[in-house]
């Protein structure tokens, strides 16, 4: 039995070593199915995370998914005298927001944090966004915890390659991925219009791990005395009407802090959206103007 | 709890350590196995535990009641136990099917008020058959009834083989729970090796094929005949790798606890005819039907007409055992038909040896025979995999649809084909061994190097979502 235990421990250590070494050697080749290391994904997440370290003292810092980085345009906020930075990224769930919040918010030092919450995203497992994040954001302990919490082997193996690689490689340090239309984390989408499609009724199913992560985010902000709000951005009416438990979702969000959902009655599904859940630039201009005047500026004035 | 889950990765080492710490007391060790097995099973749904406890309790009591020399009474007790267990199985697995089929036939399919829609307990067919075999063997006098309830309940619920077999016999497994077990280093190491091979088959081959197969079978009308043919072939490998992978993990896991389970697969795709295939596929179920149905019906020592009847009976039963669906019955019927020429010509026992024994490669004739058997089995698997008979007919029609072979979105040949090749080569080289990952390189360095490489391949290429084993639904 002792011999068995000794050999098992030795073998497990060797397995760990062998896996780490081979993943390090082969992870960048693209041969390993479960290592999906890609820079330039997550819509400028790399640039945002890098830029955020140099931005100091903005009025508002945004977190959230594409609904955040496609909606909050710094040019419109600047017209109202509000400085902002957008740390939203593709499919970013509260699990990933937590990492960015813990590592980057202290550097940005915002007066107000806005966490964009979306009924679909809160039901995502966060795997895709976790992969974006481990590849494009500098390694940190909150990232390691986030990787463990996903309980997904592909995320873990990608992290096994990406974390040491991003710590030491010049490729990561010197990478550039800015796209046209990028400004302080906001990414302007090519102008387009949505043709409304009928929608089957759907339920919003927030995942427990996302709610826990959201709770950790709000507790972290409260512990540091950083004012924050939760904000749901507009979706098309066809999409909103298809959620039969939207009221439950919104009342749930009130449990996590000051939650706002301020739809603008002038927004039209065909004219102001480029797909069912993203505003086009005309919609962005209307909505940002409205949300600045009716919500952000009054809150900032009260601080 | 799935073998391919994080929970099991934590559960197994903890159970292993406590189990061997309790080695001085057989009773405590068995009690612990029972508790661990019930925890393992209850992980799905604690209500399932009531059912397995009831099934075990009935069979245990039947054994106790058969201790008298009164043969008629023993016979009645045995039949009572069979009826009770089959009733439970029938209610949970077949009731809705029969009611719906009856309603389809006579009432235009309206049976809503009569259907139970009960949740099918995982592995119910496996442990019911295991419990039944005890009762029948006690009646036959081949097994001595046990008074040790803990050992008996542990025998029915032993977690490695609880949900998908191998279906053990009391004569082989129960005595292992009645005597103290000693840790055997070689057995434990061999068990780990077998588990590793089972994980390779499940996580790489079966789950890899599943992505392709599931997409094609979701809507076969979207694909060309070539794509449907590839999906059918991949399903043949998927179901083999999935089920035999499970069996390897189960048998290997049991070896860690000093317990030997029977072999369930013996390289069935290297069979030269369908009779040989059935001697190598799901051996524990095939032999169960042989011993408890086929032989009592007269087996092959009766007239040709009765042999034909008996063969159809066991294949139809075997098909129906898999589930309450006409497709399983059709699958059993198809295999019975394939068996007929061999039965009628008395050639069903022709191949009892190992193909190409003593040679590295098969000759052309053997290769052709194996290919033909594989193709026939694959035709059967199309019916088996289809949700309904009309669907299966459409699938067969679709096989003649022109067009190139496509790769459905999300699937990837680049990972499936090498994994399949590794599996086939390793199993071919080990076809005469106790299990398919038996033969090892000499020297620890080479051996460990091979294991490490295999683990790395699994970790690097496996599907990352937990896919349940196909046979759990039976």
Written overview of the protein:
The complex is a heterodimer of chains A (303) and B (474). With 303 residues, chain A is α/β, with parallel strands linked by helices. Chain A contains 13 helices and nine strands. In chain A, the strands form three sheets. Chain A has a five-stranded parallel sheet with strand order 2-1-3-6-7, with helices on both faces. Chain A has a two-stranded antiparallel sheet with strand order 4-5. In chain A, helix 2 (45-52) crosses helix 6 (127-136), helix 5 runs parallel beside helix 10 and helix 6 runs antiparallel to helix 7. The termini of chain A are far apart. In chain B, helix 11 crosses helix 12 and helix 12 packs antiparallel against helix 13. In chain B, 43% of the residues are buried. By secondary structure, chain B is mainly α. Chain B has helices at residues 6-21, 26-42, 47-65, 71-106, 124-140, 149-157, 170-178, 185-218, 225-256, 274-280, 283-294, 304-322, 326-344, 364-385, 389-398, 413-429, 444-461. Chain A binds chain B through residues 1, 3-4, 7, 11, 14-15, 18-19, 22-23, 26, 32-35, 151-154, 157, and chain B through 6, 20, 183, 185, 188-189, 412, 415, 448, 451-452, 455-456, 459-462, 464.
Give a quick set of tags describing it:
heterodimer, A: 303 residues, alpha/beta, Rossmann fold, 2 domains, 5-stranded parallel β-sheet, two-stranded antiparallel sheet, 9 strands, 50% helix, globular, B: 474 residues, mainly alpha, 0% strand
Radius of gyration of chain A: 21 Å
- Helix percentage range of chain A: 40-55%
Q: Radius of gyration of chain B in whole Å, from Cα? A: 23 Å
CATH class value of the largest domain in chain A: Alpha Beta
As for the number of domains of chain B, it is 2
Q: How far apart, in Å, are the first and last alpha carbons of chain A? A: 66 Å
Q: Give the amount of beta strand of chain B, in percent.
A: under 5%
The main β sheet of chain A shows up as: 5 strands, parallel
């Amino acid at each position: 039995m002792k011999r068995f235990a000794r050999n098992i421990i030795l073998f497990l250590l060797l397995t760990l070593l062998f896996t780490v070494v081979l993943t390090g050697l082969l992870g960048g080749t693209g041969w390993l199915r479960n290592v999906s290391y890609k820079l330039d994904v997550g819509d400028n997440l790399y640039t945002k995370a890098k830029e955020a370290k140099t931005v100091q003292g903005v009025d508002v810092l945004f977190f959230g998914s594409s609904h955040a980085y496609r909606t909050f345009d710094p040019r419109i906020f600047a017209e109202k005298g509000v400085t902002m930075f957008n740390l939203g990224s593709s499919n970013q769930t509260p699990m990933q927001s937590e990492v960015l919040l813990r590592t980057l918010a202290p550097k940005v030092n915002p007066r107000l944090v806005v966490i964009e919450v979306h009924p679909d995203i809160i039901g995502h497992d966060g795997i895709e966004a976790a992969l974006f994040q481990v590849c494009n954001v500098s390694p940190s302990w909150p990232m390691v915890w986030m990787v463990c919490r996903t309980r997904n082997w592909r995320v873990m193996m990608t992290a096994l390659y990406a974390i040491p690689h991003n710590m030491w490689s010049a490729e990561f340090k010197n990478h550039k991925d800015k796209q046209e239309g990028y400004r302080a984390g906001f990414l302007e989408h090519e102008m387009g219009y949505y043709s409304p499609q009928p929608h089957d009724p759907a339920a919003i199913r927030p995942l427990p791990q996302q709610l826990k992560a959201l709770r950790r985010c709000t507790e972290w902000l409260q512990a540091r005395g950083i004012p924050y709000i939760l904000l749901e951005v507009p979706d098309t009416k066809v999409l909103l009407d298809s959620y039969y438990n939207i009221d439950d979702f919104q009342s749930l969000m009130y449990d996590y802090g000051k939650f706002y959902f301020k739809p603008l009655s002038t927004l039209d599904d065909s004219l102001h959206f480029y797909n069912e859940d993203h505003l086009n630039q005309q919609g962005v201009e209307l909505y940002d103007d409205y949300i600045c005047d009716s919500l952000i500026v009054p809150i900032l004035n009260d601080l | 709890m799935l073998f391919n889950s994080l929970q099991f990765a934590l559960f197994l080492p903890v159970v292993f350590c406590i189990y061997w710490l309790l080695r001085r007391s057989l009773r405590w060790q068995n009690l612990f196995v029972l508790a661990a097995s019930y925890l393992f099973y209850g992980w799905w749904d604690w209500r399932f535990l009531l059912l397995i406890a009831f099934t075990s309790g009935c069979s245990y009591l039947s054994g106790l009641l058969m201790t008298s020399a009164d043969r008629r009474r023993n016979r009645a007790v045995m039949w009572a136990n069979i009826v009770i267990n089959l009733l439970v199985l029938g209610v949970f697995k077949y009731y809705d099917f029969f009611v719906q089929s009856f309603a389809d036939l006579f009432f235009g399919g309206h049976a809503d008020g009569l259907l139970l829609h009960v949740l099918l307990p995982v592995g119910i067919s496996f442990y019911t058959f295991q419990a039944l075999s005890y009762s029948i063997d006690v009646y036959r006098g081949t097994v001595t009834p046990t008074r040790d309830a803990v050992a008996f309940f542990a025998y029915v619920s032993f977690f490695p083989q609880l949900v998908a077999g191998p279906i053990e016999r009391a004569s082989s497994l129960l005595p292992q729970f009645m005597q103290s077990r000693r840790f055997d280093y070689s057995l434990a190491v061999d068990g780990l090796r077998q588990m590793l091979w089972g994980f390779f088959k499940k996580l790489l081959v079966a789950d890899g094929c599943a992505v392709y197969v599931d997409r094609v079978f979701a809507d076969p009308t979207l694909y060309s005949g070539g794509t449907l043919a590839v999906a059918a072939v991949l399903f043949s490998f998927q179901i083999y790798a999935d089920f035999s992978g499970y069996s390897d993990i189960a048998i290997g896991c049991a070896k860690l606890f000093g317990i030997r389970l029977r072999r369930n697969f013996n390289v069935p795709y290297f069979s030269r005819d369908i009779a040989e295939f059935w001697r190598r596929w799901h051996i524990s179920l095939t032999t169960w039907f042989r011993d408890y149905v086929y032989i009592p019906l007269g087996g092959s020592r009766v007239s040709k007409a009765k042999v034909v009847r008996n063969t159809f009976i066991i294949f139809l039963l075997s098909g129906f055992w898999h589930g309450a669906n006409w497709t399983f019955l059709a699958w059993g019927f198809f295999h019975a038909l394939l068996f007929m020429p061999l039965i009628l010509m008395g050639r069903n026992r022709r191949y009892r040896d190992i193909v190409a024994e003593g040679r590295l490669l098969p000759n052309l004739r053997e290769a052709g025979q194996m290919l033909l058997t594989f193709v026939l089995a694959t035709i059967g698997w199309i019916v088996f995999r289809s949700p309904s008979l009309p669907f299966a007919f459409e699938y067969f029609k679709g096989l003649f649809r022109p067009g190139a072979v496509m790769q459905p979105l999300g699937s990837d040949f680049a990972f499936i084909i090498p994994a399949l090749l590794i599996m086939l080569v390793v199993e071919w080289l080990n076809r005469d061994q106790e299990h398919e990952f038996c033969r090892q390189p000499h020297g620890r360095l080479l051996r460990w190097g091979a294991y490490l490489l295999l683990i790395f391949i699994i970790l690097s290429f496996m599907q990352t979502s937990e896919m349940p084993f196909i046979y759990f639904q039976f």
